Amino acid sequence: MSKSRQTKDGELILDSHKLAHHMDAIEAWESGEKFAPITVDMALTRACGSMCKFCYATMQESQKRHGIKETHALNLLDDFAEIGVKAVSLVSDGESTLSKSYAPFIEHASNIGIDTGNATNAWQFGPEKSERVLPHLSWLRFTVAAGTPDRYADIMYKGPQHTEVFDNAIKNIKYAVDYKKKHNLSVTLGIQMVLMPEFADEIIPFAKLGVDLGVDYAIIKHCSDDEHGTLGIDYSLYESMFDLIRQAESMSNDTTQVIAKWDKIKDKGKASYKRFYGPPFLLQISGSGLVAPSGMFFQATHSKLHIGNFTTERFIDIFNSNRYWDTMNYLASPNFDARKMMGTLPIQHYVSTALDEHVRGVNKITKSNKPNPLHVNFL
After folding, report:
1. Which of 17, 222, 244, 299 could cysteine-pair with 264, CB 3.0–4.6 Å?
2. Residue 180 forms part of a structural domain
3. DSSP at 295
4. Quick one: DSSP state of residue 374?
5. pLDDT digit string, tens, across residues 325-363
6. Per-residue three-class SS string for 153-214
């Protein structure tokens, strides 16, 4: 099964990684040198108006929920630029559109040459935000839990009667799609469904919605859980949905690609790797400012992996500290077992799988001779 899709704008890779386009980082890692993350996934707040049944952030540390101050946010970007971070995705554990720093952050990133992407529920993404940030974003992904209003409201909010949240989101997504077309913007627009087995009835309606909206892609992905199985996901049930997912993918057309993250869906919540090599390449930061290697470790129970907080000290000092590299080295050591000591299918899963296979000689990563795919700096 193909790991990428060819679109009118270029190759779109959502079910794999892009390490072969960053061999300088691979070489630095292999030689034991310090190197900057290629991508940082973060949020500008821990606040979020949604109440998503699939949300991993609900299990994470209940840290401060106010937004990151603009000064801290822009200083962070300046530090990223100085050490060589190439891209920032505003996803992590909060709804960044709620932060007053949101638009200034994206604009400043664009001005200093850092690519930016964003995932949002679209509830606060009205025309003013669209017009201000779309010209500066590489991609924008809207979380759409279902294709029908009542199921959407039940999964993402207080209950099926609150269909106004669906209507508002769709209105804002349509505006963004139209604005992109009208101004011929390069930003890639997509919607995403986080699939739990009990949402199977919404797979086809979701795909139809994506096609009807005319977004560039509609992606169906797995749902992550913590190491204790708090969300209660029965990964063995995903296989019963394979035919529905394939049917959804067959609904793709020249405008909209319907794509499933098959690798993660088929992994049944289990990693093939013990050592967690991914975080130095793809770092995560909480909307509280907490710098931890992965969102899997934001909880207080993983406090020994909490490296620092960029609201109380400059990120560049955190990055250059012994505790940063000692933490990364610990995760890559025999003393850590990703299969037992962290949650399932982290954001670094594709990268960690590839690096593990590279180290073991199963599948060596070599420099790509192909043109750069879309969003090459988002691993």
Report:
1. 222
2. yes
3. G
4. T
5. 999 999 999 999 999 999 998 999 999 999 999 999 999
6. HHHHCCCCCCCHHHHHHHHHHHHHHHHHHHHCCCCEEEEEEECCHHHHHHHHHHHHHHHHHC
CA dihedral 340, 346, 351, 357 (to 10 degrees): 20
* 257 within domain boundaries: yes
Rounded-to-integer distance, Cα 251 and Cα 210, Å: 10
Strand order in the sheet with 139-143: 257-260, 217-221, 188-194, 139-143, 115-120, 87-90, 39-42, 282-285, 290-292, 308-309
CA proximity to 226, closest of 93, 47, 353:
93
H helices of 196-294, where? 203-213, 242-249, 262-266
Partner residues linked to 309 by β-bridges: 290
Q: Which residues contact 303 (CB under 8 A, 6 or more apart)?
A: none
Question: What's the N-to-C CA distance of the chain in angstroms?
Answer: 20
- Find out whether 39 and 377 touch, Cβ atoms under 8 Å: yes
**pTM score over 0.70:** yes
Q: What are the tens digits of pLDDT across the range 239-267?
A: 999 999 999 999 999 999 999 999 989 98
SS (H, E, C) 1-65: CCCEEEECCEEEECCCCCHHHCHHHHHHHHCCCCCCCCEEEECCCCCCCCCCCCCHHHHCCCCCC
- How many angstroms separate the CA atoms of 59 and 225, rounded? 9
Q: What CATH number does residue 158 fall under? A: 3.20.20.70
pLDDT tens for each residue of 18-51: 999 999 999 999 999 999 999 999 999 999 988 8
Q: Which domain holds residue 309?
A: 4-360
In a domain, residue 372? The reply is no
Q: Which residues make beta-bridge pairs with 11?
A: 6
**Best CA proximity match to 378, nearest among 10, 2, 9, 16:** 16
Taking the CA atoms of residue 222, residue 226, residue 227 and residue 231 in that order, the dihedral angle to the nearest 10 degrees is: -80
C-alpha 162, offset from chain centre: 27
Domain total of the chain: 1
The answer to whether position 104 is within a domain reads yes
